[in-house]
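User: Run a structure prediction on this.
Assistant: Running it now.
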Amino acid sequence: MKTALHLAGLPWLVALAALPVPAFAENGPAFELKLDIDQDSKMDRALVLQEPGEPPDLYIYLAVGEEKFDPSRRPDFVRKGLTEDRVIDLESKGKGSLTVTSCFGCGASKSTEDTLTIVYRRGQFLVGGYSRSWEWNQQTSDGVETTVGGCDINYLTGKGTVSKGLEDGEPIKGKFRPVPLKDWSSDKRPKACDF
């Protein structure tokens, strides 16, 4: 009888082990932020974990922002490999929006900086905005050629701008729609944001 009960509990243990619970480094998450992303008047918590040389993972916990954090708690939303680059900032911009800023090169002669604006609408996490800036220096036979520019896309309004060189931004033709955060990748960014 005792063996039968032990064996009956085995599938439950396997199922519990399969739930995504972040493995925190000794020093905890790379970034942690409290905000009301779902705008229900209860504070939520966003965490970014990034191991050296690995893409960052985003974890969102709803309605637990005021509580002491329990690392064994299952997150309400997980986005593995949020970006290909190193996260340098996590901020709340009001109205429930969360911005995640990452960079490649981070100020070197070849660098880009990307910011994702994440919102919660109608029960799902969406990319509500995306901006990118770049400064790319390349050696040529005549010296150094510098390419600078940027783009700013507001998926909630459907509009975007792009700038090349030091000129002011120009509107991008076409309409943009919010992208579910679970589906986001660098392949989803508009072509105007490539250089």
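Helices lie at 2-18.
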